[in-house]
Amino acid sequence: MKNKRLSSNVLKLLLRHHKLRVRRHLVNVVSMSDESRCLYKAPLFKNERTTFERIEKFISEHHFLDRNLRGRLFGKSLPVKIKHCDFGQQIVSFNKAVEELTKRGVPVDVGFTFGPTWSTHWFQVDIEIPNGWNKKELMLRFDAGCEALVWGLEGRPTQGLSPDFGRIGVRISSTLLVQRVFIEASANERNGDGNGGQIRPAKLDRMFQIRLAEVTEYNRLVEELLVDFELMLEMAKLLPKEGARRYEALYTANDMINRLISSNFSLESRKKCHEQAMQFFRQANGASQMTLYAIGNCHIDTAWLWRFEETKRKCARSWATTLSLMENNSKMTFAVSQAQQLVWLREQYPSLYEDMQDRAMDGKLVGVGGSWVEMDGNMPNGESVIRQLLYGQREFKKMFGNYSNIFWLPDTFGYSAQLPQLMRHCGMCYFVTQKMSWSLVNKFPHHSFRWFGIDGSSVLAHFPPHHYVAQITVNECLESMSNFSDHGRSKVAMMLYGHGDGGGGPDEIMLKRAERLADCDGVPKVRHATPNEFFDELEKDSDNLCEWRGELYLELHNATYTTQSMIKKMNRLIEGILRDHEFLQTIARIELGRGRSLSDEWKRFLLNQFHDVLPGTCIKEVVEDAMLIYKRLLDELTIDKGKGLKMIGSGISENEPLSPNKWVVNSCGWIRTFFHNNRLLQLAPFSVTPMNELKSLKIELSKQPIATEEEDGFILQNHFLIAKLNKNGQLTSVKVLGVNESRNGSDSEMFEAIPSESLANQFVIFDDVPLYWDAWDVMDYHMETRKPLTKASSANVVENSPLYARIRFEIRIGKESAIVQFVSLRTDLPYITFDTTVLWHEAHKFLKVEFPVNVNSAQASYDIQYGYVNRPTHRNTSWDAAKYEVCAHKWMALCEYNRGVALLNDCKYGHACEGNVMRISLLRSSKSPDDTADMGQHKFSYAFYPFLGSMQRPASSPKVSVMRAAFEFNSPVRYVEGWQVENKIANLFAITGSEGVMVDTIKPSEDDENALIMRLFECFGGGAYIRLYLRHARIVSVDLADGLERSLANIPIEGVPDTDEGSSVESIALDFHAFEMKTLLIRLFSM
């Protein structure tokens, strides 16, 4: 009984406590409700239109400035004294500018005009503060109509000025009665100076004018109220009409206006109204509300509608402003990408670079991307991508103390299916872009997902659901939430904010908005965070995220694979030249102990892979700068119009004797055959050999020459094929010869590669007028304007022997454009080569070449970095139809089970395959932003390679896979001048086990003078177990490494029989899966 009575008493106490809690909760609810109701007094009338417009006019920059709030932002003003000095197109240091201003500065005033475009002008601004202003908050407002950088007296940049979005004010002290600042004005607008439109060619005679120069009183509280009204007005306009929150925003703003007017804008009423607004913004969201992680950035295009030189100043303007903001905003974070820009800053603005290093120590200013520049995501080859990340990451380590684990390409025009592996290989596990939202046909289905590459590597990817230059407005926050496609799987997304493209970065208004929207009922939460803090949160949702396998194809800007073809040609050419040069430096390191890294040459080259330079979407002046970089590299690296390599560095003395004989280079891992002085000469793998020691290829030659002329055309024939061409240079028939693998092995079989009644090597021209982005886009409707070029004006055999034959054709395109083409066949090669010169003077035309082939397949294969991808040849779905123009590197192929056709090329990237018609895109003629794009002479080559068997192992030439043939087609055999090694070098390395594993790169280590780097990859698309032979006594050990040349694990070296030498040789075993790439760190005995 006692226990029961005790239990009963306990129960009563618990019930009483529960009732008390409920009562308190109800009181709290009532209090919250009362608080909400007390926030405002509703308007007298339910006329929303007048209430909305009243608020708009109250903060307007154009209406009723004598009565509204905006007109009270600035008070009394004072003029300033200005001196000016014109430096023309020269960019000068601070000290030089001050010196010249002292010597020859001229007094000017508001209304002063200066220019022309891209010229440099320095202004000395002298300020006198009157007595009685010492307690006022003051601002220098200087509007030169162009971009400018403010410098302090001590020579430190303090803030950028960008009038296009209103950044013209600089806070100044009111206690110093006499002050002086310097302003470096660049005569250009932030986002280009197009003549008649942003993406038009630059107008080079633009003039600018000082529109405002004054010191004025600044009312900080008025600015706070302007932000309050702006956000509440947005919420009232955009939140659902069915919800009360919309009306709370509208009525609170209206009530605040009444309070301000009734008190004649008194200081006390302004304070109370601001607190009223903050009380409104502090009403919290529910727990399920989405969170936007706000990350400041200033996406600066390294070149686009301005030159590289101007970008250096854009960095200083943007980052100086950012540092100033961060001093007073402890929560703000900022992401810096592109190592090249950091290097420029260190060289040109060392004090600013040091300030950024200091700020990076607190973890709020962070490096992202890890790349040298934000490069194109499709066209650089695999080694170029690794070098972008290798040299970029090294620079980031210097600046921020660590490597970036986030690949950051917000504005690149599509993303290769091999990028996940390349990211992982260089220490990155996260990927950020925004560009996929630009796709014209299909909406990409995810914003957060796992992205898998063709080798199976994966990264966690995120696409911010709004632009990469957000302003943190209510509209942007709500659009981010509505755009987000992964609700229920995650509730976090990035918001990248700050003025961009031409730089600028965040401003104080954006930070004020973020403060108010941190947790404001009705709007997604806004939280300042670093990119890694965001991904830490996203990782928690990773198990719920979807997967995407393969490329991220942007359904827009697909003409960038072709525009400015000379830039693309030089990119491919120098990629190959650097490869050969690094092979020579490796041999010099092994044999002489003095081969060096080519990091300086690579960095200059990588600059031109920026995503508006290599794609050709920049102004003419940037193209000129890019071509100058290429020319200087070619002058340093090659001789004899690129036929020879000039041995550089490595401690070579001018007094050392050079061999009079030409040394020929083969940096490939297989025997090369090349045509020289009417002989077919052979080069051993991985060799540098005197020309006079080379042996001729042993081959059974026909007694007849390769070419035969007939009445209606020509026949080309060798051991692999018989081709017929008409007098217009078109292929009418190509028969591939082979041996059927029957029991006796003697039955001949053929493959007719060209369908009957079809013409291959058919030049076609299309009308090419996109919707807007001229240099960027080719629209699907251009295919409806196809016009074949059917008649050649001349055709004749110009060279003919049992070894080699060439036929010359000339085709007119128009009054000023023509094609001269040499069609050739070599006795030892299974493909026909087309060496082409085009004189091109067209407008909005697109030149392509077509090859209809006798192959039926639902997909074609296209070469990419370290592998290939398959894409549809049909239009079954909108996703298929959108890929009417795609990117490939050295080859494309259309295959059936036992036969196929490949097209090789030496500098083209635009391709397509529709049904059985294969196309290479050759030339465009866009007019914006460069109205001279692609005008002039172009030289390029492509080849037609039909085969029996598979593209990995053609039946009649099993050693000449499509991959190997394309590699050789892009890597002509070159000789080297200045070679110091006395003996022939050959077969230092060898691979057995699979011809699908290729050595892409052999180079000196960046840091260890007694180490080499070797990069291999599997290109056939299947697993492979190989053995790599190491035939040099200096090799000590081999480690598996990553793309940053960091050792991951030691690989045991084993002694095995050498089938070539008949003795034991050291080797290592390597196991590859499909399209896998490996980096080896090979250590040497010191010399």
UniProtKB/TrEMBL annotation:
Entry annotated with the keyword Transmembrane: no
Residue span(s) of domain Glycoside hydrolase family 38 central: 555-630
GO molecular function: alpha-mannosidase activity; carbohydrate binding; metal ion binding
Stretch forming the signal peptide: none
InterPro entries: Ams1-like_N, Gal_mutarotase_sf_dom, GH38_C, Glyco_hydro/deAcase_b/a-brl, Glyco_hydro_38_C, Glyco_hydro_38_cen, Glyco_hydro_38_cen_sf, Glyco_hydro_38_N
The organism's place on the tree of life at top rank: Eukaryota
Catalysed reactions, as listed in the record: Hydrolysis of terminal, non-reducing alpha-D-mannose residues in alpha-D-mannosides
Similarity comment: family membership: Belongs to the glycosyl hydrolase 38 family.
Protein name: alpha-mannosidase
Biological processes per GO annotation: mannose metabolic process; oligosaccharide catabolic process
Keywords, alphabetical: Glycosidase, Hydrolase, Metal-binding
Pfam families assigned: Alpha-mann_mid, Ams1-like_1st, Glyco_hydro38C2, Glyco_hydro_38C, Glyco_hydro_38N
Enzyme Commission numbers on file: 3.2.1.24
Keyword Metal-binding: yes
